[in-house]
Specification:
A 4-stranded antiparallel sheet has the order 1-2-3-4, covered by helices on one side. The chain has 2 domains: 43 residues, no CATH class; 67 residues, no CATH class. Helices cover 44% and strands 18% of the residues. With 130 residues, the protein is an alpha+beta fold. The structure holds zinc ion (ZN).
């Protein structure tokens, strides 16, 4: 039984050995970072990975681009679990799902660097002047 405030997990011997070998190999270096035990090493690694996941929104990205076409972008809204198509009409993005030009989907597409392949330089300038 782990001591209060701690939980134990079970991993296969293979996984354990892999991590333990990595720990043993870098033991000296890790001590400089204040990591003095194998469980401390695992904890710091898990925290690091979690930070990366959160920073990249890898858990469940709110919006995903599915397809970028000539005049439209297909995105998936994971919050409502729907596919939305955003088209370029009269130099303005229009969401066909919401029938709006100012919803979260349009905002997401404006944030895509690929959008600038769809718009001609003159058109970008005009839409930024608005
Ligand atoms: Zn929308």
């Amino acid at each position: 039984m782990p001591k209060p405030g701690f939980k134990s997990i079970t991993v296969s011997e293979n996984v354990y050995r892999k991590f333990f070998n990595a720990y043993a190999k870098n033991k000296k270096e890790l001590e400089f970072k204040g990591i003095t035990s194998f469980s401390g090493y695992l904890t710091s690694m898990m925290e690091e990975i979690m930070k990366k996941y959160e920073a990249n929104g890898l858990h469940a990205p709110f919006m995903e681009k599915i397809l970028i076409g000539h005049n439209s972008v297909i995105i998936k809204d994971n919050k409502i679990n729907r596919i939305a198509e955003i088209t370029l009409r009269d130099n303005e993005l229009q969401c066909l799902l919401d029938d709006r030009n100012d919803c979260v989907h349009v905002g997401f597409v404006y944030s895509l660097p690929e959008l600038y392949f769809m718009l001609k330089p003159k058109e970008i300038k005009r839409s930024m002047d608005l």
